[in-house]
Amino acid sequence: MELILKYFPNLTEDQINKFKLLETLYQDWNLKINVVSRKDIDELYLRHVLHSLGIAKVMQFKDGSKIMDVGTGGGFPGIPLAILYPECSFHLVDSIAKKLKVVNEVVEGLGLTNVKTTHTRVEEIDDTYDFIVSRAVAAMPTFVHWIKGKIAKEQRHDFKNGILYLKGGDLAEELKDYRTATIYNLTDYYTEDFFETKKVVHLPIKYKG
Ligand SMILES: C[S@@+](CC[C@H](N)C(=O)[O-])C[C@H]1O[C@@H](n2cnc3c(N)ncnc32)[C@H](O)[C@@H]1O
């Protein structure tokens, strides 16, 4: 938890309590339904919470923003972002029901009122969002295809509406067809070795009505 405060020192009491409670909730639920690997649960704050919040280091969501987390799995990056941005609404989507069971329990345990979850493939979602966030779900071309038509028209941020994807490694090949993509190295914000190869990719997506 100190790790979170090191990089996000202005959290409210309520946010601190929620971040603290995450560990207990994930430990309990992970025993029943394994959604986070054993190694990762021991380093929940580094590998999951801080990593998810990397998106918030790159850009800040304005109050009232609508965000979808595609392939949220156990709730990452959606849950940590929902704690950080209580005035934004988050839609967490996954095609595997048992993962969402854990997410729903965590959302309830935290008392988060700004999160909704849907058990479906993202292709079936019929709504629009300011931003679509994700981690470890699909290569960019597939992902872009899936989220077609799901980006809102109205621009409310300096960052253009689109995708904010947590990715790692060499992205040159994967992103070669996306000239408008910008890569942000998380090492610019975090000093822990874990972030050495970790990045946030921002890909603006044009609204197609
Ligand atoms: C490797 S896990 C990553 C989970 C989480 N984002 C994380 O980083 O911890 C990938 C997740 O994407 C989900 N997924 C894959 N394709 C999907 C699709 N088309 N629509 C919704 N969820 C999908 C899977 O069910 C799985 O839970």
UniProtKB/TrEMBL annotation:
List GO terms (cellular component aspect).
Answer: cytosol
According to its UniProt record, this protein's enzyme class is: transferase
Keyword Nucleotidyltransferase in the entry? The reply is: no
Looking up SUPFAM superfamilies in the UniProt record yields: S-adenosyl-L-methionine-dependent methyltransferases (SSF53335)
Q: What's its EC? A: 2.1.1.-
Keyword Zinc in the entry? The reply is no
**Pfam families tied to this protein:** GidB (PF02527)
One molecular function GO term is:
rRNA (guanine-N7-)-methyltransferase activity
Spell out the coiled coil positions from the record. none
Question: HAMAP family in the record, alphabetically?
Answer: 16SrRNA_methyltr_G
Annotated family:
Belongs to the methyltransferase superfamily. RNA methyltransferase RsmG family.
What is this protein's record name?
A: Ribosomal RNA small subunit methyltransferase G
